[in-house]
Design a protein that fits this description.
Rieske Iron-sulfur Protein; 2 domains; eight-stranded antiparallel sheet; four-stranded antiparallel sheet; 10 helices; binds FE2/S2 (inorganic) cluster; binds fe (ii) ion
Amino acid sequence: MLSLEENELLTNTDPGTPMGELFRRFWIPVALSEEVPGPDSDPVRIKILGEDLIVFKDSEGRVGLVDAYCPHRGAPMFFGRNEESGLRCVYHGWKFDVDGACTDLPNAPEGETFKNKVKIAAYPCVEGGGLILAFMGPKDKQPPVPDFEWLDLPPSHFYTKKFRLECNWLQAQEGDFDPSHVRFLHSTLDNNSSNPGNRVSGLNLGIASGREYYGYYSMEETDTGMLFSSVQEMSSGKISVSVLPWMMPAFCVPGTAGLQMFSSNMRIPIDNTSMMFFRLRWSREPIPENELREYKQGGYVFPEMIPGTWKTAANVFNSYQIDRVAQRNYNYTGIKAFPLQDIAMMEDQWGPLADRRKEHLTSADEGIIRIRRRLIRTVRNLMEGIEPQEPWHPEGFRANRARMVLPAGSNILEAVAKAKAAALSRTVPSGMLIV
Ligand code: FES
Ligand SMILES: [Fe+2]
């Protein structure tokens, strides 16, 4: 449960708000590379953190992210001519480069000198992993680009998409650190945990309460966020240890991708009641053909889209095309695509912007509580002029999911320590699974 003031603090990311400022201290994804495929590509409208922006690539292939409105008389830059190393407003011909400098002001005699005084708001960008990342904060607070391993991979090694969600960023992120939902929401009737016949004992060996426990085994803070460890006893008696990192402000590395595949979920506010969900799968090897086919056509890991939009075909406006027959007979939710099962729960938690005063959290929700606490602390510090240190640890964004399976009777503390070291290591072998 959060107070009204705390809830507002974490969910309002408009320009000038404390959380809005915190987001603006980090490099964040703003668009897909495929939206600006090459030099002089068409200008594209995006909205990030409540700001209307245009993304484009200039003649040299440099990415530009500028204000959606021309500083002369506010005409939409979307209609601009993208030519000869800059974007020209079609109203009176003023032209700007990717750094926001006015390079031509042709409609007035004083233009030659006046252009040096005119700028369009522009944010620096980098490209990698199928994403355009931008830094939208003050110039003198610009940190190094985070050391995400996927930033340097060739296109054969990643698959990246984005979906627009009709809810606040925080309720979507919190779903990734809600370990107790998985065996309900994402289950089928024969493996779900509501069925007493399917209960597994000792699910989390950290707690010996006689009841199943779905929470984390341990949680701890890192330079850039937190690490969450889970320990489970498998039916074979082997012990499975997994470590999930969260990196500030909105980078999650969920634990559901396959053995050689890593996954990254990023939730970036469009405004306070809608957000863009950037979803990345990547590997240190080229992604196998069959896996790629599943991503592109399977409709399970990456849901089917409405062509020409960033909306999934099954969405909040059609109740995610819930199939009640499937729900009665096979699938726990009746919702087909894996991420849509989550999204159906996230987009409407007392509406698109949850009032967290109404919650009743339990020990299984402790991961969510810890992340809120860390964010509240950091954002309150920033309000007092204490800058966050997280963006200044680029190596800390290298954290990956790590999972190990150990023989029955293994020393759990040692195993967790090993998995944590692996999650933070820059050199985790691809075949992380040790049996
Ligand atoms: S409004 Fe853009 S050049 Fe006049
Ligand atoms: Fe989920």
